[in-house]
Design a protein that fits this description.
The protein is α/β, with parallel strands linked by helices. It is built from 16 helices and 15 strands. The structure holds one RNA strand.
Amino acid sequence: MTIKLHNTLTQNKDVFTPINPDEITMYVCGPTVYNYVHIGNARPVVIFDVLYRLLKRNYASVKYARNITDVDDKINKASADNNETIGELSSRFADAFHEDMAHLQTLTPDLEPRATDNIDAMIEMIQTLIEKGHAYEAQGHVLFQVSTDSNYGKLSNRNVEDMLAGARVEVESYKREPGDFVLWKPSTDDLPGWESPWGRGRPGWHIECSAMINKHLGKTIDIHCGGQDLIFPHHENEIAQGTCCHDHGSENFVNYWMHNGYITMNGEKMAKSVGNFFTVRELLEKFPGEVLRFALLTAHYRSPLDWSEDTLLQAKASLDRLYGALRDAQLDAANAQHVKIDELENFIKDDLATPQALSVLHSLAGDINKTQGDEKSNLQQALRKAGSFLGLLSQNADDWFKWQPESANNESGLSDDSIDAFIEERLQARADKNFARSDEIRDELKEQGIILEDSKEGTRWTRG
RNA sequence: GGCGCGAUAGCAAAGCGGUUAUGCACUGGAUUGCAAAUCCACGUAGGCCGGUUCGACUCCGGCUCGCGCCUCCA
């Protein structure tokens, strides 16, 4: 079965045909590192991690780049507010981003270009755009002249006149036309800046992605991903820059554009500017990263996903069931084979149909709970492997059930050892048929959030 | 003003023109010292009004409501 992807460019679910099947190129817009990312920022990272895993399984090589924007006016402001240098601040939050994403079980991209390491490529691109008559200098700024690009608006399906009609666009006096956007802007001495043909300055937001794509991945790439809010103007402008710079003609800058929907809170878009957000970091205080990841996969990536406590509790309950089926299962399942693994793979190939893929995991769990012996073990391997396609179910079931937040440490709650001691005592009480004492211990542990389960193999416990 | 998205059972969330999505919750049963976990059983839901069709949640038209982009934004 072929891979199908919804392409914003065609507004259709298209069969994926790579430029070169031996090396797929994919680019995801990464974070601007000026504070902690929220769960909405994490959605594309997780979703397109599933895509990356899919491509890696189906093609010899995948080159996946995710940029880090480390030059930006928000960074400048945050560093001033925190009394911290720009470099310190951006590397601090880049590190935090990596930590958070690791908790979400995302694979590391093959390339993670930083804007500040690619200024030369941007300057070069801007120069070419000026030479070709697509950009002009005005009052220390360099602007892209939108009217020179006859394809402008192709991705977002809009034209400049209609956009300006009801929009709130501030028109700077130095713009030739209201839709023109900044490629380069002047920096004062207190701001980060680089020498350029137009004086000391810094790049506009859109140019970094175009320049880094060209430099690291090529003239035309297979897939470019990001949130829906990037379609316009960011990605539209990337296309304008990329195609006008290299005379693409009828050739695309990017063949497949994929955009994820928003995380909402009570139906409204989660956004830093609105303030209605949860950082990944604070959510990790209450739930394992895998629960966050699972929750992000419960809805189709192009649909909105409303975020609430209940979203997380349901994701937790689902994972409890899946890990329950993996008790005593071995970790390595690379060689597992099962029709349901293929079934799940086909769902992912169908424009990342993760809700359906998750239903396959549940189906396997049900099968496991109904069997014993070798067949059970085979099915467990199948579940393990199927889960890995989604970046799930990679840990020991016991570890899963014993999870507690990092901040819990020894101050609060019971240690694993003391829980085991209580279980020993209760075991003796049960052997003595002292069920009153046995139940008392179970109730006491329950008050501390520890749930006991008696089975033929002995007593197990989980942190509820 | 332009462009786009959504409305499914108690909750979350999919596919599909006619056959069980799935998970959680609920109820009954099996199992258990009692529980928990697990297994079995159990839900004709698809915003409103028309149309196409032998048949529509699924296609077409209209309406209502909600959301988003056009400004930094995943």
